[in-house]
Structure formats: structure tokens, C-alpha cells
Amino acid sequence: MTIIWGSNFSVVKRAFVELDPQAFNAVRLTIGSLVFLAIIVAMRLRPPRPPAPGQSGSIASIFYTPADITARDWVGLTALGVVGHFLYQYTFVAGLSQTSVANSALMLAATPVLIALITAALGHERIAPLHWLGAALSMIGIYIVVGHGARPAGGSLRGDLLMAAAVCCWAIYTLGSRPLMTRHSPVGVSGLSMAIGTLLYVPVVLPQIRAVAWTAVSRGTWLAIVYSALFALCIAYTIWYAAVREIGSARTSIYSNLVPLVAMLGAVLFLGEPLGIRKAVGAAAVLLGVALTRVGGARMAVPACE
After folding, report:
1. Is residue 203 part of a domain?
2. CA 243/CA 250 separation, integer angstroms
3. Cβ within 8 Å of residue 75, ≥6 positions away
4. How far apart are CA 22 and CA 6, in angstroms?
5. Residue 161 included in any domain
6. What DSSP state is assigned to residue 258?
7. How many structural domains are present in the chain?
8. Which one, of 267, 254, 225, lies nearest residue 2 by Cα?
9. Which residues contact 117 (CB under 8 A, 6 or more apart)?
């Protein structure tokens, strides 16, 4: 997941040269939603065989669970679609376009701490002291990597506020999946909530979509759209939700701090940007912080059918 999301920065960079960011996002959300819905329908028409005695069914349950979707489930899926796909995607893209990458990365690095605070306040997970230490150390590492030399002039207040709103939306989105994930598959929850969010997102950015000369869009940009839809949305979102179900929200969220490091490594390997001692030290701090969060921590309970 971190490799996909980290490399996605380089993939979409070229696409933003040709396309309005919101138009790009609308197309990839549409593609991602259609792929998810196709998988959901296929799994419903031909569900996987039950596991043999002594074998685990966890892999199959990532794609399919036999539980019916209740009216309460639809309310939860709609809420996830509004917060986690419509509001998050809009505020993230808008914020990123109006503030600096350094400011954005520093605010996104606060996501694990925000999720840990909320889960601790709600009593969903017991956050061990080492987890707090790991989250703090990861944030320090992120600052060493991207925050050194950052100035307020590098981004607008409006962009920073939009990015802060995106962080809050992502935290709520991650935590809101808990009740649904105990009964339904990560593919089902991700796909249905994404489809709902896309139905809200596309009409809002329709002017940006219409302003694009789609016949003039290059093949490389179309490949970037498809890659971002299939990998950054479909595959990475499924991994994220599967991890939330298996190891809990707090421990899953800390891995998002690895995304800027993967993006940095990609820039070093493919763009020729220098690594430097400062970035190496920051990367080591982030990795150590993630390692600390692996010690202890509560596991999210999942029914036997899952």
C-alpha cells in the first residue's frame, strides 16, 4: 500500500500538467468505482468456495462475505462515501493545489496521531505508550525529511485549512469502517462507499471536466489515470481496509507515514534528486517509529465468518 501510494505522486505529476486536478480525480474515481462494482457483482453471482477444513478463509473474505446489506449498513456506507471519498478527495486535491508539498506532508503526518486520539477517546483500542512514542518519532522524521526549510509563504492559508480538513476526513473514514468491516468485505465496503462518493463528486466538478479537451489528452496521461485508479484506489484501498480489520485503525494508520518516504525514494531513483544525510536521518526516524507501533496494541475483533 505504501509503495503504491508513494509512487503515485510521480505517476500523477505528469497528468496534472495536462489535466485539471479535479477532472483527473473525477475520472479515476469513476474508473475505480466501476472496477469495484464489477468485482462485487461477480462475487455475488459466483461466491468463492468455503475453505477446506484447517484452512483460513481470510483471503476470500477480503473480496466477499455472505452477509446481507441492511438499511443500517447503507446509512454507514453513505456516510463513508460522503466523508471518505467525496469530501476527502475534494479537499485533498484542492488543498494540494493551493499549498506546498512540504506543508501537505507535514499535516498528513498527523493522521496517525489523530486516529490514535479518537480511538483512545472512544475506547475502541488501547493505545500503548510505545505506540504514542512511535507516532511522535514518525512525525519528527517526516519533519526532518520535508519540513526543513519550509516557510509559511510556500503555501496559502486556504490550502493549509483544506489539507487539515482532508486529514480529519481520512481519520473519520478509517474509524467509521469498523462496524461495517466486522460483517462485510474490504472490497465491498470500499467499492460501495466509493461509488456513492463518486456520484456526489462528479456533479460538483462537472465544470472542470467539461473544460478539458479529452481528445487531446496524451496516451501517457491516460495510462496515469488508469494506473492511479486501479492501484492507488482499488488495490491500495482494499489493503488499507483489510489492515484496519486485521490490526486495527491506529496501527494501520501509522504506515501512512511511510508514503512520503517512498515518494522521496522514487524521486532519488527516477528523478535524480539527492538523498542527503538529513533525509536519511529522517527516514530512519520514521522507520523506527513504525517499528515501535508494532510492539503490543489491541487487535480488532472479527466474527468467525469473516
Report:
1. yes
2. 10
3. none
4. 20
5. yes
6. G
7. 1
8. 254
9. none
Does 193 fall in a domain?
yes
Contact 227, 277 (CB under 8 A): no
Model confidence, pTM: 0.77
**Distance in angstroms (rounded) separating the CA atoms of residues 180 and 28:** 25
Q: Which three cell numbers stand for residue 262?
A: 517512498
Which grid coordinates belong to 293?
Answer: 507501533
| Cell numbers standing for residue 21 | 486536478
Find out whether 241 and 186 touch, Cβ atoms under 8 Å: yes
Q: What is the pLDDT of residues 173-184, one digit of tens each?
A: 888 887 888 888
In this structure, the chain runs to a length of 306
- Residue 249: how many other CB atoms lie within 10 Å: 24
Read off the pLDDT of each residue in 20-26 and give the average, rounded to a whole number: 94
Q: What angle (nearest 5°) sits at the alpha carbon of residue 82, between those of residues 78 and 85?
A: 110
Residue that the C-alpha cell 471536466 belongs to? 209
**Cα dihedral across residues 204, 210, 215, 220: positive or negative:** negative
Provide the 8-state DSSP code for 177: T
Cβ proximity of 5 and 260 under 8 Å = no
What's the pLDDT tens digit per position in 80-128?
999 999 999 999 888 877 776 556 666 676 677 777 777 777 766 666 7
Residue 200, amino acid: L
Q: How many Cβ atoms sit within 10 Å of the Cβ of residue 243?
A: 19
Q: Would you say residue 60 lies in a domain?
A: no
Q: Is 198 helix (H, G, I), strand (E, B) or coil?
A: helix
C-alpha cell, 255:
504506515
Identify the domain containing residue 173 by its residue range: 2-44+69-293
Is 93 in contact with 25 (CB distance < 8 Å)?
yes
